[in-house]
Amino acid sequence: MRSRLPKVLFLAVLIALSLYVFEKWTSTLPSIPSHPQPSEVYRLISPSSYKYLLNQPDLCKNRKPFLVLLIPVTGYDSESRDAIRKTWGQENLIPDFDIARLFFIGQLRERDLKFEEDLLKESTTYGDIIQMDFLDTYHNLTIKTMMIMNWMASYCRSARYAMKIDADIFLNVPYLVKYLQSKAEHNFITGSVITDGRPRRDPNSKWFLSKQLYSENLFPPYVSGAGYVFSADLAKKISMASKFVRPIPMEDVYVGLCLHFLNIRPQFAWKLWPYRNLFEVRHLDYDRCVFAKRIIVTGFTSTQLVNMWTDLKNAAFSC
Ligand SMILES: *[C@@H]1O[C@H](CO)[C@@H](O)[C@H](O)[C@H]1NC(C)=O
Fold it and tell me: Signal sequence span per UniProt (predicted)?
């Protein structure tokens, strides 16, 4: 009897191929809007709807930062701010490369005078806090990201690169600075690129997105919000695009939609030998020589960050 294996294999390949074609064929991206959104829709994310409670308008005066670290945090998060100031956000970390650091905070639901006083003190001491008067919630992160873009476009046009990065992340600054030296200075954005993101239609999901807000079944390529790096010129372009692109409560997908509007593709940051994604959005247990060759790794407490940092200082010489 002849083997049936070739036939079975052929069928399997045929089925896989048709599924692939079917999926591609039925996946659609939004068309590029040609008109700005109605003003009552744009108002939600428009910078002119909110005012600064704390600002650092002179941070970039008389200086040209190579990189500005833009860190969304909530007000009560002073412990993670302290950890960042002592680790990857510290000043003068890399000789000859000016790196600036800024925390972005919204407003509490209810006024808390003690909190306001502490935050003002912290802002005076470190000069690294920006606060605006929108409610600081998970669903308002798109607003926060647009405020970050607008701040860069308004007050720090001299910078070369910017990075939006969450507070619970390990950032290998020396590796990043070296990596960026060979990268484009315009229309450049990199991070952990997601090319097959789709909206969740289950109303119980944390990432639920209604068809009304987003009717297509595929997202354009976007970079995970955990941490992404972009040439500073993009801040203004993304702010401009946001006038056309309807807001959705997922800030990283929203930035992807703005990039789609601008016809800019986020760049992968992969390296071979060994293969790795330099923006690691899975959690990895700390290992000195693994972390020495990543730009970010996600998911650490402040204490872990401080401990890892102390250890990693020696890594450059031993890995
Ligand atoms: C977002 O912020 C605005 C302005 O403060 C507020 O009115 C709204 O309730 C917030 N939305 C959510 C979902 O928290």
Answer: 1-23
Q: Give me the pLDDT at residue 1, please.
A: 59
- Shortest-distance atom of ligand 1 to CA 106: 5
Using CA atoms, how far apart are residues 92 and 81, in angstroms rounded to an integer?
17
Model pLDDT for residues 212-251, shown as the tens digit of each residue: 999 999 999 999 999 999 999 999 999 999 999 999 999 9
Atom of ligand 1 nearest to the CA of 137: 14
Distance (Å) from CA 55 to ligand 1 centroid: 20
The domains of the chain are located at: 38-318
Q: Tell me whether the omega of the peptide bond preceding residue 65 falls within 30 degrees of 0, making it cis.
A: no
Q: How far apart are CA 218 and CA 67, in angstroms?
A: 32
**Domain 38-318 part of CATH 2.60.40.10:** no
Tokens 């500073």 -> residue: 232
Name residues contacting ligand 1 (CB within 6 A): 134-135, 137, 139-140
Max CA pair span of the chain: 86
Residue 133 CA: nearest ligand 1 atom is: 5
Low-confidence ranges of the chain (pLDDT < 70): 1, 315-317
